[in-house]
Structure formats: C-alpha cells, structure tokens
Amino acid sequence: MIGTAVTLSFGLATGFERAAQRSDLPDVIARFEPRTRDEVDRRVRSLANVEDRSYRLEVEGISLSADGGSSNKGTVQLVPRGRRGYAVVDGRDLTGRSGEVVIERGLAREWDIEVGDRIGVDRLGTQRVAGLAVAPDDVAFPLAANPRVYLPETLIPAGFRDRGRSVNLALLWARDPSRLDELLVQARSQGFGLENLRFVTRDGVRALVDQIAGIVIGLLIAFSLAALATAGVMLGASARADVQRRLTDIGVMRAVGFTRAGVAGGYAADAALVALPAAVLGLLAGALLAASPSARLLEILNELSPGGALALPLAGCLVAVVALVVAATTWPAWRAASLPPARVLRGMEIRHRVRRGRTPGGPFGLGLRLALARRTRTLATASVVAAATAVVLLMLALTSFLGRLQDDPGVVGKRYELSARLPASAAREVAGLPGVEDAAPRYVADGVDSFALGQPVRLVAFPGDHVPFEAPPLAEGRRVASDREAEVGQGLADALGVRPGGTLAVQLSSGAEARFRVVGVVRTLDREGRVAFVRSARVLAADPGLQPEVVIRVEDGAQTEQVQERLLSLGAEPRAVGGAAPRNQAFLGVLAGVLRVVALVNGLICLYVLVQALAVTAAERRQTIAVLRAGGARRATVTTMLLGTAAAVLALAAPLGVVAERLVLGPAVARLAAGYASLPLGAGVVQVALAVLGLAAIGAAAAAWVARRVEREPVAAGLREG
Amino acid sequence: MVAILGRSGSGKSTLLNLLGGIDRPDAGTVEVAGLPVHELSERRLTDFRRRHVGFVFQFFHLIPELTGEENVLMAARLTGAASVRHGHELLDRLALNGAAQRLPHTLSGGEQQRIAIARALVNQPSLILADEPTGNLDRAAGAAVLDTLRGIADGDRAVVLATHDRDAAALADRVLTVADGRLRE
Questions:
Q1: Are B17 and A716 an interchain contact pair (Cβ–Cβ within 8 Å)?
Q2: A524-559 pLDDT, tens per residue?
Q3: Based on the number of CB atoms within 10 Å of its own CB, is A170 exposed (0-12), middle (13-18) or buried (19 or more)?
Q4: How close B61 comes to chain A (CA, Å)?
C-alpha cells in the first residue's frame, strides 16, 4: 500500500516540475498575431531580465494523418535552433534536415506511431518521425484537442513559405525568475501594438493543466497521502499483534534469565530481519502495481515519470517502515518483559470472565467470546481493518464524486443546464421559450491580476444577479450587489491575499483594466477557485468586444432535449453543461485503473489482516476447536465459530472506519486536494452499505479459509496440547 | 465397562483416539461395532463421532469462555433440540445445577470433570471413551467420577476407560493391559 501511495503521490506531485525542468519550459510564453522576427526581436531585446529567447511560427488547423488516425486540428510549430521548450523522450531532436518532424508523445501513443514511422502533414506530404517530445505547456493529445508537430525552421518547409519569416510565438527564459512580475510589466508595455498579445507564465501553465485535471490529481495525491498514514497505523498494529501472539516465549525467556534489554533487543533484531526484506518486497510490489497507471496518467498530462528519482522516496519509506515495525515490536516486548514472568506465561490479556447473556449462544457466540477474551488483539485488528475500510470508503466516495464532477454542473455551483452561443440580446427571447425557466448572458474574461501579473484571473460576469445561474457557496462576506463589487474564489483570495474590503484589479487581454471591491469569498472548483464573479458593466467597459454565451435554466419537469430543439430553431447550437472534470474517456479510464489498484490493495490488506487474526485465534484455541471436532463438529461449525470472531472485529471496525472516513480522511483529503472549495467526500449510505457488505464477504472468506486449514490437522494433535 | 491399563506412554490414549476416530492408524484396521472406522472419510468420521462417541479427557478440556451449562449445550447444539433438552436433564441428574451457570475456572476439578462427562453424554452416544478421567483429581473427586462412569456403564452404554490406576481399573467389567505395543487380557 505504501509503495502504491508513494509511487502515485510522488509521480503526480512532482510530474509538472520534472517535465518543466527536463523540457526547459520557458518562464513566459507570449502569443500574438504574426509579426516579423526582427520586429519582435527588437521589442524583446529591450527587456531586462531576459536570459534567452526563441521565436516561432505556430500554425493551427493543420491536417495530420497516419495509419492510426487523422485530425484537421493539428498544430505545427516551426522550431529554430537554440532552446526548445520540449523534451525529446524517444528518438532524436530535429537536426535541420528536411523531411523530418518531431511529434508529441500523446499523438504517437494515440495513433500508434513509432520513431521512424511516417506521418502526413498537410501540404508537406508525409514526413519521417525523428523523435517523440513532451512539452508540459499543455496536456497531451487527445486530452488536448490539438495534436502538436514540430518542424525545423531553418529550412522553412515548402508548405509554409507563404507565411514568410513571420513569427507569432515568443519563448522567454528569465535571468531571475523571482522577478518575473517586472519582466511581464515591461513586456506588456513593449508589446503595445502587437495584436491579441497573450502571456502565459509557468504558473499560468500549471493553472491551465490544473483546470483540466487539477482537482482529480489533487484528490489522488491527497488520497495517496491518507493511504500512507493508514498504512503506518496498520503496520504498527500488526507488529504489536505479532508480539501479543508470542507472549509465552517472552515469559519463558524471562523465566530462564534473559534481561529486559536482551528480550527487547532480540525482538528488535528479529523484527528488523523480517521487516527489511518484507518491506523491500512490499514496496516494490506496490510500486510495480501503481507504476503503469501512474505513468499513463502522467503521459496524458504531458508530464514525465519519476523513473530513478522514485528510488529516494521509496528508500525513505523503507527506512520508515522498518523503523516503525521495530518500534511497534520492541515497545510491547519491552513492556511484557517488565512484568513478572508468571503473569506473562498465564497470558496477561486473556479475560475469561465474559458476562453471560451478552453474547449469543452456539458456535457463533463462542467465536465472539474468543475475540472478547483477547481484547487488545481484537482492538488492534479492528483498528487495522477500520483504517483499510476508511480508505475504501474514501475511494468509493471519491469515485462517486468524480462521476458527479464529470456530469453534474451542480457540483461546481452551476444552476443552468444548457448554454448557447447567442448575442446577449437573445437572452430575453430564450427565456420566453416553453420549458425555459430563465436565461441570461454570461461573459467570461480572462486576464491577470494587475498587481501580480503572473496570477491568472477569470472574471465571470452576468448583467444582474449571478446567483440564480451560478451560486458557489459563500465562505466569507456577502454576495455582489452592484457593478463595483466582486465575489472572489477562495483560490484567488489565497493567491492574491485579498479579502472582503480589498480591491481586485484585473488586466484583461484587451489591455484595459477592470477594478472591483471584493465583498465576498466563495468556494468554487472552477479553475482551482481562481475566478471572480462580477456584474458585466465594468467588464464590458474594459473589453467591449467580449462575446457572451446565453445560459439557460430548464424548468423542473421540462425535457432538456425539447428545449435544445427549440434553441436549434433559433439558430443556436445549445450545449449541455457538465461539471468540472474532463470528459476524456481515456483519462477517466486511467483514473479508474488507479482507483481499482488502490481498492484491490486495500481489500487484500483487510483479507490478510482478518486471516492472520483468525489463524492466530485458531492456533491459540487449537484445543477448543479439537474438543468441538472430537464431539462431531463439522467444518461449518468451526467456520461459524470463526465467523463469530471475525464479526467481533468487523462490528468494531465498520463503525470506526465510517467515523474515520467521515470525520478525518474525507475532510483531510478534501482540504489537501482543494482547500479553495467544498468537496463532499463523506461516504454516503450506499457506499457504507457496499463497504459493510464487502467486509462481511471478506470476513466470511477469511473464516472459511482458516476453517479449511484447521480441518487438515488431526483432532488428536489439538487435544494433546495443554 | 472396559478398562485399558498401562504405564504412561504405553499407547492407551492412542488406542482410545483410534477407537473414537480422532486419529488414524498408520497400518492395520479399526472396527467399532462392526464399522470400519479406518476407512471412513473425514466427513463420515465426524458424523460417527457426533452420533456414537463421547469423550472424557484427563484435563477436562472445557471451553474457558463458556459456563458449565454452555459447555454441555454447545455439544448438544451439534445434533439438535432433543439433545439440548437432554443436556438440561443431565445437569439435573448429575447434580450440576450449581455449577451450570459458572465459568470453568471457578469450579472444582471434580465439578469440571462431571461437566465434561455430561458433555460426553449429551448426544446419547453408545460409546464413552474416558482417558485418565481421574488423573487430575483428588481421591474423593476421582471416586465420584468413577461412580458416575460406572453408573453410565450400568445403563445401556459401553465405557472404555484408559487408566494407569489399578483401583480405577478394578471397577471395570473387563481389564485389558497395554504393554510393549500389545493388548493383553
């Protein structure tokens, strides 16, 4: 479990930085309408704090085709000599030779292209694929709609000669990245006259990737960390249970003259000898199980697997696991060795005085009493199973949440079901359509904070009150009541340090600025909470060319499809509104794979812990079982008895697990994954019922398996003991 | 009532285990009332024990978490409601009502062994196998237990008693001796 959790969390948490470093991702990427290289270079040269630069022509809408697929949404970048901004992960980079291309890894995987294969590139005809590249400034195809191909600029390919020597993309590497704000301020002033100038910083790129998959990745990382902590509890409890099983040995050792330190030291050495190879095997197995889905997830995000770098956190975990097992073994051994040997030999925790009438009769009741006679072990086993149950519940809640996140706009606070590209003036007409409860134009304007230019901000604007259409919960302050006011997302409030009473100044892509007084902070999942809800007057004043979409609330009981048909008759192309997660099936498939691995690991842990506990009980109560068998008890009777023991453990573990998930793990993961939003990660009734059923099945399987093993032992052998 | 007499380690307990079907012979055959016990499958051997055999052990082997009554009724539950009723009757008959509601560690050795006898009888088996039933009791308690076993044998059941105590063996109708791996009259 630890190996799985570390592989997932380390790979995902560091994937972007690793890819950014390896690909030499620029600090600023500027896009603009094509200009001559000389003009752009003249402007860039005047900027301070620029260590290096690269200018390119990026052409969109290119037809690409290969045996495995085709697209007419391809993007071609003409790459000059110098720094690339992408990492070649297979084959080799462009050499300037014509007839060769480098393609993005996502495209190669999706269309099953290998280095040396050929790909058709629009008017250029077929080109040989020299290498595969990863550029983390966007997610990979097909999660991104545009597959990317890189061509050498030195020999301007014949198909692009009509573009001349113009460029529309500038990659800038800062000398001092901590002073990026100043560079951006200068660049904006120098960019005056460049049309449609847009800057993206590394933070912006990260926000872009997060917009697509951030909440999912955040949840996975947080989930892995929670699983890691749970695994620690399990290890400690299992090691302690093992010492409890060997109390008689400790009594004998003390009786024959071993010192306390000798006993504890011996147990510590034993524990280390067992834990070291076991931890190596366990960590490797967990890492191997998670490696494939984790790598696939990183590929989809255009990030790189940690490879050998994973060895360090795994080695750290190895040390921590061995230390934990040694400590959890040594401490109870030391405590037991401190007691009089006679007491230890009697079995210091057995409690035979189980009150009559509190447990049912028959083999099942006997099993319950056997568990109650070993309360410490039962509690330790129950705590381990409870921890695993809490993780499974969290996983079920997570799966359900991700499903809703994908399909249910309500999860992200949206109250409208449809949207359509229509002029603002059409909203009134749309609102009058049968089946439509209300409609309004919704404007979206992207910009950056005027005081911290690296911080992207999205303004969501409605002409009037936004609450009937979009109402993320208020965390602080109040709702917007005038054109001058704004509600900011928690993510934005945290990033900019603004609170109710502060000022939000946004520089829009038009170059104009819009200022608002912050009156409220809302919890929203949209763009990691880096959004602000405002009225549209000031936004339109700053960017008069902004085009809205009309958002539509469908009446209760009305058919959304019928409303869509009516909108079509108006000439609109209505779109059903989804949630916040990507709709990419491959991505969700990989995610489901990861969750399945974690679920499998947890289920196996529950089964192992229960089998171990029941096997210890059966070994300790060989005589009792032998007496029952001598009296004619069949395997079913022994199974029923062990079921009683398992039930005692599960009756404690199930509620403990539910409480732990609802009060600890769920809120902790929600906070870790998205502190800027309210994530409903508490397990619901259905999930609890599923987990309880799963536990019952695991308990029955464990009891049946141990009973089967018990039956193989001759009855007389069990009776000889004692 | 048959007494098997022999020193410790002579094989008395092994003989009883073979007769009761809780151990299997490495070689040879074991027949009980004409039934070839050595040939029975594990499942049929279990049925054989439940219907036909009752065990009484030297160390009682009562389940420590169950009261005297529950120890008796646990065995009764393996065969059904009639045996449960019989279990209550046995506790009455063996004067164990005082011990019935107590846990084994609060009972005297004699009481524990009589509870064990009641447990052996609860399913009304035709054969009672008692392995050193007085070996862990004082003289008075041992005598009481032997009287109980004698009474059972005087009814319609066979009792095979393994012991190294000649006085105990003297109560039997027939005494067999185990020595050097052989059983002699």
A1: yes
A2: 877 777 899 999 999 999 888 888 999 998 888 888
A3: buried
A4: 7
